[in-house]
Amino acid sequence: MTENDSVDDNWQTADDLLTDLFARAEAREDPYPLYARVRDLDPVHVTSTGRVYLTRYADCAAAIRNPALGAQNQAWMDVVSPDWRTHPSVVQNIESVLFQNPPEHTRLRKLVNKSFTARRVTAMRENVSGLVERALDRLADAASDGGVVDAYDMLARTLPTAVVGTLIGIPEKDWDMLHDPTSSVMQVVEVGVGPNRLVDADRGALQLNDYFTDLIEQRRRQPQQDILSDLVATADADPDNGMTDTELLRMVILLFGAGVDTTVGLLSNGLIAFLDHPEQARLLQEDPALAGRAVDEVLRYDSPTHVVVRVAAPGAEAGGVPVAPGHTVFSITGAAHHDPAQFQNPEVFDITRTGTTVLSFSGGIHFCVGAPLARMEAELFFPALLRRFPTLSLAGPPVRRGFVVRGYSSLPVTVK
To answer: Which region is the signal sequence (predicted)?
Structure first.
């Protein structure tokens, strides 16, 4: 995966390259050479329809923090996709805080911030460490006969579900059952969601609505020491300034879904990065104190999120060019993280790299509330994995999943 890999000579324009990126799964498998080509040709690319694509780090960083570039909210969706309310999975996403603008976003974010505190995340460290070791124990048991096991199922999928499920207050018996419907709903934000996937996503959204509606009512009757109980109490304490029942439901599903999905990408991308670069794995084995830098480098080198989309308000600009109201700006953060103007030798995976500020968790008012938890989880996971399994190796080609949220759906490994 290098920016200097060859690109088809027939791809002459940024339009051609971006069309290929969004139209062909093969181009998204390793998009970094294509990103570099677009950045060289036209780093602030404006299409004939007024859509803007940004590939430089400075431009992307500014755009995702620009208050004049807002979320794809309900009013915008009513114009571009009037039937969006007929799909429960789309409703779940668009009605969540992730797709709200001020003042609604400000109110909802303030309420969730009261429960999702840094102190609460820090207090979970010992618990998360225990969940990491449990996941690694399962991998050890599954691989004890020397056969091939799927590290996605054993680790990358199950660990984030356990961590976020514990924080929210989801019973352990339900963790595995919630994975498929949650994953299908989160896939709605992906490129090229076809009718069959949308049907699956809608079915998953209805399952999640039923499950979390029941769980919210349980917490109303019997509060516990978890985020869900806090959110329920906050919503009920001040009906005029709190959350409606629908907003509460959307918030809880988003916290679980986004908290799991992004971290699945972080852990799976990082696992492959270390297996592809054994010298970096040895560095972390020898010096676990590098864990924080290692997580930053995984987030930069192969980020679990590659695109942030914003909608222009009147007077907005991006990358130094004006953007008409209602038009979209695509900050391709996966390209920004490989911008040589920001990162020296960006194609090199180097866990000793310093001064790395990534855009993987968005920015501005939409900065991911779960970012500290995801970082802590990864900082505990990677050193423990490499300590427990220094001979871990791929047993076959891993299978990619997603582009907007990028990770893997299969990681066949052996422990020699």
So the answer is: none
Cα distances (Å, whole numbers) of residue 111 to 105, 217, 370: 10, 19, 14
Q: By three-state DSSP, how is residue 104 classified?
A: helix
Q: Tell me: do 221 and 280 sit in the same domain.
A: yes
pLDDT in tens, 110-124: 999 988 888 999 999
Task: Enter the DSSP assignment of 73.
Answer: -
Q: Residue 303's domain spans which residues? A: 43-415
Rounded Cα gap, residues 196 and 328, in angstroms: 26
* Same domain, yes or no: 166 and 271: yes
Taking only the tens place, the pLDDT of each residue in 151-174 is 999 998 999 999 999 999 999 999
- The total of structural domains in the chain comes to 2
Tell me the residue type at 34.
L
Q: How far is CA 26 from CA 31, 75, 287, in A?
A: 9, 34, 37
302 and 182 co-located in one domain: yes
Q: Which of 92, 304, 305 is nearest to 198 (CA)?
A: 92
Closest CA to 305 of 350, 336, 282: 336
Number of Cβ atoms within 10 Å of the Cβ of 301: 26
Are 184 and 74 found together in one domain?
Answer: yes
Ramachandran angles phi, psi of 414, nearest 5°: -130, 155
Could you tell me the CA-to-CA distances from 385 to 242, 264, 343 in Å, in that order? 42, 15, 27
Residues 315 and 406 in one domain: yes
d(CA 410, CA 183): 14
**The overall pTM is greater than 0.90:** yes
Please state, in angstroms and as integers, the Cα–Cα distance from residue 199 to each residue in 26, 253, 375, 401, following that order. 24, 18, 33, 18
Nearest CA to 386 out of 297, 270, 265 is that of 270
Q: Tokens standing for 290?
A: 């590098």
Per residue in 168-195, pLDDT tens?
999 999 999 999 999 999 888 887 777 8
Cα distance between residue 57 and residue 154, in whole Å: 35
CATH assignment of the domain containing 93: 1.10.630.10
